[in-house]
Inverse folding.
C-alpha cells in the first residue's frame, strides 16, 4: 500500500472503477476525499488510514489492507463465552401456511456465511402444524431445523413468540440469527434481542464475515442514507440482523436435499395473553400492483416527473409485462402513490430488468434496487450515479428515447408473433 510523508499507510483509489457515488466522501472522518470530474480523489497527507472508505465502496474502487487488531472487550461489558455458540440461524416466518420468501432469501445468504465459518445453517420455525415448512427449509438450504409446534403459536403474539424464540436460542446457541425485516420480524427481533441482552442491527443491505473474530459484518444505511455503516457485535451472542425482502437473492429449491428436523418442547405462557377477536384486512386498491414481485420495473425519476408522460411509461411497462415505480421526489410531487416508491424509505426491489427514466441514483434509491439483474438507465447526464452502475445506458432526452424504445419492442413482438404463426 502507498504511504504518505508521515509513513502512514493510506488508501488508494482506482479511477476507472470509481462510479462517483460519493459514499467514501461522506464516510471519511477527516474530509480527505473530494470529487474531481465525477471521480473520488484522496489527499494522501490528510488521510489517516482508517479504511472506512474501503468498507463502504460498492464498486471495489479502493485499495486498502487493514492492519490486524487484537480482539478487545468493551469497557463495562460482560462478554459471553462466544466459543460456545455455533451455526448461522434463520428465523423462518410463516405466511398462510408457507415459509415467507424473505426467509428463503436469508437461508441462501446464510449458506454463504456458514461456508465462510465452516458451520451449519439452522432453521428456526414457530407455529402450528409446521412440519411441511421444516421440510421446505431443508430443500432451500438448511442443514438442521428446530421447531416449536404449539397451538398458541398459530397466530403471532409478541410475548408468546418472543419466549419461544428465546427458548430456541438458549437451547441451540447459534452465533448468528437472521430475520426478515417484515412487521413481524422487526417486532420479534427487538423482543428476543432485548431478552438475550445482545445487539441487533436493523434493515441491513449487506452481510459478510470477519474470519479473524468470526464476526458478522452488518452493513446498513444511516444518516438518511448518506453513509453506509458496518456494525459489529463483538461481545454478545447471537449476532442479530434483520434484512429487507428482495435484498438477498432467492436460492434454488432442491427437493433432494436431506437434513435433520427436531421438535423442541416448550411450555407456552397462557396467562394474561390477548385474545384475537377479529382480523380486519387493510383495503387494497383495485389497480394496486406489488412492485416487489414485478419482473420488470419502469422507474420514473425526478427528471421525468410530468403527468403528461405517465401513460407512456405505463405503455412501456405493459409491453414488457412489468409495472411502473418511482423515486421519492415523484411521490412527494403527488404523481404516484407511496406504494410505488423504490428506495431506503420505500420498497426494496430486485426485478429481472430495472429501467430508470431520469433517475439520478441517490444513495437512498440505490439501496433499494441494487440487486436488480439488469439495470438500464435513460438520462441526459452521463455522470449520474445510476448511469455509472447501469448495465446499459441511453444518454438523451427520455421524451425521445422512450418512444423509440416502445417502437422497437413493438416491432420485435410483431416479428416474433409473425414467425410463430408460420410454424
Amino acid at each position: 500500500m502507498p504511504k504518505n510523508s508521515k509513513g502512514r499507510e493510506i488508501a488508494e483509489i482506482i479511477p476507472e472503477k470509481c462510479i462517483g457515488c460519493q459514499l467514501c466522501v461522506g464516510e471519511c472522518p477527516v474530509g480527505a476525499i473530494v470529487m474531481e470530474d465525477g471521480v473520488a480523489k484522496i489527499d494522501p497527507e490528510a488521510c489517516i488510514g482508517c479504511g472506512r472508505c474501503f468498507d463502504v465502496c460498492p464498486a471495489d474502487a479502493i485499495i486498502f489492507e487493514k492492519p490486524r487488531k487484537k480482539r478487545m472487550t468493551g469497557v463495562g461489558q460482560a462478554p459471553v463465552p462466544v466459543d460456545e455458540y455455533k451455526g448461522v440461524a434463520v428465523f423462518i416466518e410463516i405466511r398462510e401456511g408457507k415459509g415467507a420468501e424473505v426467509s428463503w432469501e436469508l437461508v441462501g445468504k446464510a449458506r454463504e456465511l456458514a461456508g465462510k465459518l465452516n458451520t451449519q445453517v439452522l432453521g428456526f420455525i414457530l407455529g402450528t402444524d409446521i412440519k411441511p415448512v421444516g421440510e421446505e427449509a431443508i430443500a432451500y438450504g438448511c442443514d438442521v431445523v428446530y421447531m416449536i409446534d404449539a397451538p398458541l403459536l398459530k397466530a403471532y403474539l409478541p410475548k408468546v413468540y418472543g419466549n419461544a424464540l428465546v427458548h430456541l436460542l438458549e437451547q441451540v446457541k447459534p452465533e448468528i440469527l437472521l430475520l426478515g425485516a417484515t412487521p413481524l420480524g422487526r417486532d420479534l427481533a427487538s423482543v428476543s434481542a432485548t431478552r438475550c441482552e445482545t445487539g441487533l442491527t436493523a434493515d441491513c443491505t449487506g452481510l459478510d464475515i470477519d474470519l479473524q473474530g468470526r464476526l458478522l459484518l452488518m452493513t446498513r444505511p444511516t444518516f438518511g442514507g448518506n453513509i453506509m455503516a458496518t456494525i459489529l457485535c463483538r461481545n454478545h451472542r447471537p449476532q442479530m440482523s434483520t434484512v429487507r425482502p428482495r435484498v438477498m437473492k432467492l436460492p434454488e429449491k432442491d427437493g433432494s436435499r436431506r437434513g435433520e428436523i427436531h421438535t423442541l418442547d416448550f411450555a407456552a405462557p397462557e396467562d394474561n395473553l390477548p385474545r384475537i377477536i377479529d382480523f380486519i384486512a387493510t383495503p387494497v386498491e383495485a389497480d394496486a400492483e406489488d412492485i416487489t414481485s414485478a419482473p420488470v420495473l419502469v422507474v420514473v425519476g425526478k427528471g421525468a416527473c410530468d403527468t403528461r408522460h405517465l401513460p407512456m411509461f405505463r405503455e412501456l411497462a405493459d409491453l414488457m409485462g412489468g409495472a411502473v415505480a418511482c423515486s421519492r421526489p415523484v411521490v412527494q410531487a403527488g404523481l404516484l402513490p407511496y406504494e410505488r416508491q423504490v428506495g431506503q424509505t420505500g420498497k426494496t426491489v430486485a426485478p429481472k430488468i430495472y429501467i430508470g427514466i431520469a433517475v439520478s441514483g441517490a444513495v437512498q434509491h440505490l439501496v433499494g434496487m441494487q440487486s436488480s439483474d439488469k439495470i438500464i438507465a435513460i438520462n441526459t447526464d452521463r455522470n449520474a450515479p445510476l448511469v455509472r452502475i447501469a448495465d446499459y445506458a441511453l444518454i438523451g432526452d427520455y421524451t425521445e428515447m422512450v418512444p423509440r424504445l416502445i417502437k422497437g419492442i413493438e416491432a420485435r413482438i410483431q416479428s416474433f408473433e409473425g414467425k410463430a404463426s408460420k410454424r
In short: Residues 69-76 have pLDDT under 50 and may be disordered.
